[in-house]
From TrEMBL:
PROSITE patterns: ABC_TRANSPORTER_2. InterPro entries: AAA+_ATPase, ABC_transporter-like_ATP-bd, P-loop_NTPase. One of its GO terms (molecular function) is ATP hydrolysis activity. CDD domains: ABC_DR_subfamily_A. Keywords: ATP-binding, Nucleotide-binding, Transport. Signal peptide: none annotated. Belongs to the ABC transporter superfamily. This is ABC transporter ATP-binding protein. Residues 2-231 form the ABC transporter domain.
Length: 239
């Protein structure tokens, strides 16, 4: 579903992403790991068409993100690092607004909005304004907007960041539930998250892929070691 070929991005003289290659298949939940500043968000923004690559390509569902960014955006649900939401809108109003932006007209908006609310278990708060929701529920609203158009690909930038342990578990369960039949890429700093939900790990450091393997293969690099010790041995801080 996602093919990344020789993707690079420079900000001025800073090479943030340096010639990376990987693929993500339907059914994969890819954990995208790396220290602060490694280039995770930049890579995700290029795959989703929010940033233009300096070199290389990302092909999503057969469409090249540079040549056909609108077709790529149709294939993707994106939860950015800090999901923008309109606090004064109710959950249902916000999702209707997103449905309209996604091209659903008039009464055709109802079915995808209801489905997104059902999938993300927001029925109890659909008429509540977003600013009055807990952080975990706000994050669910972010998921609801990402899955509203039933995309084949989900790109989730640090989806459990800032949540309490219970909310983290809820969101992980939700990702597993939503991931069926989709290709999912999620960035995280939480290594236990990788163990809990990911089927594959890509570790990037200083803009380059240093690991692309299963969580079991990652653990087998140092049997019995903590995942963060393995992470530390493979990376150095980029900031
Ligand atoms: N708009 C920008 N202009 C200049 N430099 C940028 C810009 N965005 C990111 N960078 C730099 O590019 C590098 C990669 O940043 P990026 O946000 O992709 O890393 P990240 O792995 O997502 O980090 P984090 O885990 O902290 O979110 C960093 O050195 C960062 O400072």
């Amino acid at each position: 579903m996602i093919e990344v070929n020789g993707l690079s991005k420079s900000y001025g003289t800073k090479l943030a992403v340096d010639n990376i290659n990987f693929t993500v298949q339907r059914g994969d939940i890819l954990g995208f790991l790396g220290p602060n500043g490694a280039g995770k968000s930049t890579t995700m923004k290029m795959i989703t068409g929010f940033l233009r690559p300096s070199a290389g390509t990302a092909v999503v569902g057969g469409f090249d993100v540079t040549r056909d960014p609108v077709a790529v955006k149709r294939q993707i649900g994106y939860l950015p690092e800090s999901a923008p939401a309109y606090g004064e809108m109710t959950v249902a109003e916000f999702l209707n607004f997103i449905a309209e932006a996604r091209g659903f007209k008039g009464s055709a908006r109802q079915a995808p909005v209801d489905r997104a609310i059902r999938l993300t278990h927001l029925e109890g708060v659909r008429s509540q304004t977003i600013e009055t929701l807990s952080k975990g529920f706000k994050q669910r609203v972010g998921f609801a907007q990402a899955v509203l158009h039933d995309p084949a690909v989900l790109i989730l930038d640090e989806p459990t960041d800032g949540l309490d342990p219970n909310q983290k578990n809820e969101v992980r369960a939700l990702i597993k539930e939503l991931a069926t039949e989709k290709a999912v890429v999620l960035s995280t700093h939480i290594l236990e998250e990788v163990d809990a939900i990911c089927t594959r790990i890509i570790l990037i450091s200083q803009g380059q892929v240093v690991v692309d393997e299963t969580p079991a293969e990652f653990q087998a690099r140092q049997p019995g070691a903590r995942l963060d010790a393995i992470f530390a041995s493979l990376t150095q801080s980029d900031v």
